[in-house]
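U., I forgot to send this yesterday:
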Amino acid sequence: MTDKPIIDHGLEGVYYTESKIAMIDGHLGRLYYRGYPIETLAQNSSFEEVCYLILYGKLPSMMELDSFNYQLRNSREINPSVLAVMTEMAQKADPMDTLRTAISMLPGYDIDAYDNSNEANMRKSIRLISQVASMTAAIGRIRGGKEYVAPDSSLSHSGNFLYMLNGAKPTENDARVIDIMMILHAEHGSNASTFTTIAAGSTLSDIYAAVTAGIAALKGPLHGGADEAALKMLYAIGEPENTEQYIEDALAGRKKVMGFGHRVYKAYDPRARIIKAFLEELQHSSSEEVKKLTAIELRAEKIMVERLGNQKGIWPNVDFFSGPVYVSVGIPLELFTPLFAASRMVGWCAHMMEYWQDNRLIRPLDYYSGELDLKYVPMSER
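Result:
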């Protein structure tokens, strides 16, 4: 056998492709979509405009955005057969399992399903962005024992999501909160779910199969489920005055404090800074539950930054501050990861279409460390 090679566990530090979609500067805490700072997009743009930017590589004109919005708004309704399966599953299965199954059904109802041209894939991508938001809202309704709410084409993407989930048209502020949260989760380079999407699609499978694989990867608590885990930690702390002791005990026991640290960022996650700005407003305008959660977060952040921020480069990430913001606009904890999927769908589709322009089957190596040339023993002698 050859000498053992260097094993890059988790493919950390390995480059496998070039991309023009997102750039992450982990040391300075910067994130760019197609060259635009995330702070600029969160402040000035809409989720629809950001989707166009990520898919087409440029900001749209008014006419282009109107056409894009028209396509999104006319793709919101869930096929009755798909909805029936979702209704059957949603009461018993994990929401991400229901979402994954629903997405895998879509080729059966799409005239472009097996057309792998770039034009057809762009149309399918737009439908997926629209459909997954509707599906996420529908899962929330079904699990809450409520009737399905049909989409409203007069509402924005985020506004319609909240309408389909809560059964009432949202306030402008609530819709804008979800809009910004979806912008912040729309894209993030070659993370686990994006890489999984590309690995599946590199076989020249179709885009539905590829993003279904992405959904499966996103389900895990180390990726898409991290914001849910962070909120559960806040509930476990219970009261703001318990925060310092909880954090101290966790650090003493070398337990992970959810919502802190990131594989890429060695500085403050820029998305977390944007979400943190919501917290001051929530402290003055939200329910007592949200005010309590926010108070716990701010105290936990203070002690973690003092203990681990500058010393070890462990800072709050986007997942840490997300929970109370979602709760404030009526998003149940179990929908956090499906909503992440609804936001990230555009990134998955954009990366898949980009990779297909110069496709190569992803086939890494593994170093065999087992025994060789073992003697086969007949069953009668074992």
